[in-house]
Amino acid sequence: MFGFGSANGAVKEMTPAEVHDAMKKHSIVLVDVREPHEYTAERIHGALLFPLSTFDPKALPKPEGCRVVFHCGSGIRSAKAIGKCEQLGIAHEVHMAGGIQAWKRAGLPTVSLDPGSGKIVDRK
Prior knowledge:
Layout: E1 5-6, E2 9-10, E3 12-14, H1 16-24, E4 29-32, H2 36-41, E5 42-43, E6 48-49, E7 68-71, H3 76-87, E8 94-96, H4 99-105, E9 110-113, E10 120-123
């Protein structure tokens, strides 16, 4: 667990494997809080982009209707997104431990843009 308080105690973490399985089951919405240039360069297929620089927790689905899991590059910005939700009393409190870097270390697939051709490349 991250040493970061939330209304229910602490930020809850999911491993990349848990996030991958939950996405396959359509039981979560993965929200990427990195910046657009990072998302364009490489992303997790199916993740929605909500950059932390313009992050508005009120634009997210209601916690009662949808389980949101945040991710970023390493886990720092996703914890900050949870803090912004907490400040508004919005109970989204789960993030992916280690961010996209941990996802890649786990050997999970990403989508990237080939800078030479401009084509989207699935990386497995």
